[in-house]
Design goal:
By secondary structure, the chain is of the alpha/beta class. The protein folds into three domains: about 240 residues, 3-Layer(bba) Sandwich (FAD/NAD(P)-binding domain); about 100 residues, Succinate dehydrogenase/fumarate reductase flavoprotein, catalytic domain (Flavocytochrome C3, Chain A, domain 1); about 100 residues, Methane Monooxygenase Hydroxylase, Chain G, domain 1 (Up-down Bundle), CATH 1.20.58. The strands form five sheets. Strands 6-2-1-10-17 form a five-stranded parallel sheet, with helices on one face. A four-stranded mixed sheet has the order 18-16-11-19.
């Protein structure tokens, strides 16, 4: 349903209708809310692709304290411990809330939730739905509930182009629908737009996921945090398909091993082996590939004929590519998968711009630090959506009609910059490549082409990566391989980023004279 814009009257607007957006809208009920989705719901959402599950300390041998310790260890010193504690303590009841909504989590024969193990977790604490189709199943349930909820108005096919700001506060959203430009008046906007994987050539994300929410927030003046931390999933199915099919970490949790083309386990002597932190495993695989060796995930011994039943979606993707995981190893390579950085928010999801909140992957809450612990992403969304909704509901709803530019904006397309981004911002980075990327991206970011917004997001990430002169978590600098004990979480705004980029350009021109 698409309501007349005169009916909106200041209702909060959620931009993005994946897991985080739907959860926020449901928590806001019975308060009226507008949910904007650029495409038909579920067609280009990373949420539906999530194979891993949702982490929560539900086992008899587990506790929030253990989940806290694992999350802090994975975050490599940059997590906000208070936020981590708040999230992990909220997760058991959040799982029960999802069950109440109809979430079909997998159960053992005794009726208890089946708990899986993934990398860097010290206990089995991952709940799944339909094996490796957790994201799809949870999204299906949430969408059905949202469509039945009278307070939620879903606007499919509408794209948010810019956040409209007056005197430092949100006053509306400039949106495009059927080649028409509209002003949606509101003083309350929630960004739930997902990640940035579409900026890279190898990604498990929808190709349109270029960091739309980051561009919106940056242009509105919001502070961004930890943008340099991009997680590459170690095991994406190595075929020509893009986006790449994910081979879930849960496969390694069941005992699958990584081998080279000769069948040798190259991680056997690494602490944690195949279940080491994702950045460790991704770099090890990247090193093998750079040396010209193929990498495979071998599940024949641990799963064999049981593979199809345990991981039906992965099995189908493999067989579509002519691979039978029951009898042959699966070719894999790392792919851009999750962004730990995002819009800097407080404990209630509020950004530095009045009237702007962020939830899910687009937000930087402090939970993930330098490296996300497996299956903490859906967990973060379900926990923080409740706090965001409460904050939005408790904020004054006043509104006014904002002034609307008449120009119809171009639809963003990151395809022309993917190779440059992949070269500079991949698993291993260095200062020269990053500076070259900034020089290439800056004129595109300030231009008026379809690549402008994607280039802006990539520029911000490149500058954040340049400023962090150390290696930590998912951010690895070959020219700064050591860890700086004094390094802190990073912060950036569009103004400071442009100042930095211009200064770099000036220095480069001075050197060339």
């Amino acid at each position: 349903m698409t309501p007349d814009i005169h009916d909106i009257r200041g209702a909060p607007i959620i931009i993005g209708a994946g897991f985080a957006g739907l959860m926020t809208a449901l928590y806001l009920a019975p308060h009226p809310v507008i949910l904007i989705s650029r495409t038909p719901l579920g067609t280009e959402a990373s949420s539906t692709l999530a194979q891993g599950g949702l982490a929560a300390s539900l086992g008899e041998d587990d506790s929030p304290e253990l989940h806290l310790a694992d999350t802090l260890a994975a975050g490599d010193g940059l997590c906000d411990a208070a936020i981590v504690r708040r999230v992990v303590e909220a997760l058991p009841s959040a799982v029960n809330h999802l069950i109440g909504l109809g979430a079909p989590f997998d159960r053992a024969l005794d009726g208890k939730l089946r708990l899986g193990l993934e990398a860097a977790h010290s206990r089995r604490r991952i709940v799944h739905a339909a094996g490796d189709a957790t994201g799809r199943e949870l999204f299906r349930v949430l969408l059905a509930v949202a469509r039945r909820t009278r307070s939620i108005t879903i606007m499919e096919g509408m794209t948010a182009h810019r956040l409209m700001v007056a005197e430092g506060s949100i006053v509306g959203v400039q949106a495009v629908l059927h080649k028409g430009v509209f002003a949606l008046p509101t003083r309350r906007v929630v960004l739930a737009t997902g990640g940035i994987g579409g900026l890279f050539s190898d990604t498990t994300n929808p190709l349109a996921s270029f960091g739309h929410g980051l561009a919106l927030a940056a242009c509105a003046g919001a502070e961004l945090a930890d943008l340099e931390f991009v997680q590459f999933h170690p095991t994406a199915l190595d075929t020509a398909r893009r986006p790449m099919a994910l081979v879930s970490e849960a496969v390694r949790g069941e005992g699958a091993v990584l081998v080279d083309e000769y069948g040798d386990r190259f991680l056997a002597e690494t602490p944690g082996a195949e279940l080491a932190a994702r950045d460790v495993v991704a770099r090890a695989i990247s090193d093998q590939l750079a040396a010209g060796r193929g990498v495979y995930l071998d599940a024949r011994q641990c799963l064999g004929a049981k593979f199809a039943k345990r991981f039906p979606a992965i099995d189908a993707a493999c067989k579509q590519a002519g691979i039978d995981p029951a009898v042959e190893p699966i070719p894999v390579r790392p792919a851009a998968h999750y962004h730990m950085g995002g819009v800097a928010v407080d404990a209630e999801g509020r950004s530095s711009v009045s009237g702007l909140w962020a939830c899910g992957e687009v937000a930087c809450t402090g939970l993930h630090g330098a490296n996300r612990l497996a299956s903490n992403s859906l967990a973060e969304a379900v926990a923080t959506a409740a706090w965001v909704a409460a904050s939005v509901a408790g904020t004054c709803a006043g509104w006014q009609w904002p002034r609307l530019p008449a120009i119809v904006p171009l639809r963003p397309d990151p395809s022309s910059i993917r190779q440059a981004v992949s070269n500079a911002l991949g698993i291993v980075r260095n200062g020269k490549a990053l500076r070259d990327a900034v020089a290439k991206l800056l004129p595109i970011a300030v231009g008026e082409t379809t690549a402008a917004d994607p280039a802006l997001v990539a520029l911000l990430i490149a500058i954040a990566a340049l400023r962090r002169e150390e290696s930590r978590g998912s951010h690895y600098r070959s020219d700064f391989p050591g860890r700086d004990a004094a390094a802190l979480p990073s912060r950036l705004t569009l103004c400071t980023a442009f100042e930095y980029a211009v200064a770099l350009s000036w220095q480069a021109s001075e050197r060339s004279c």
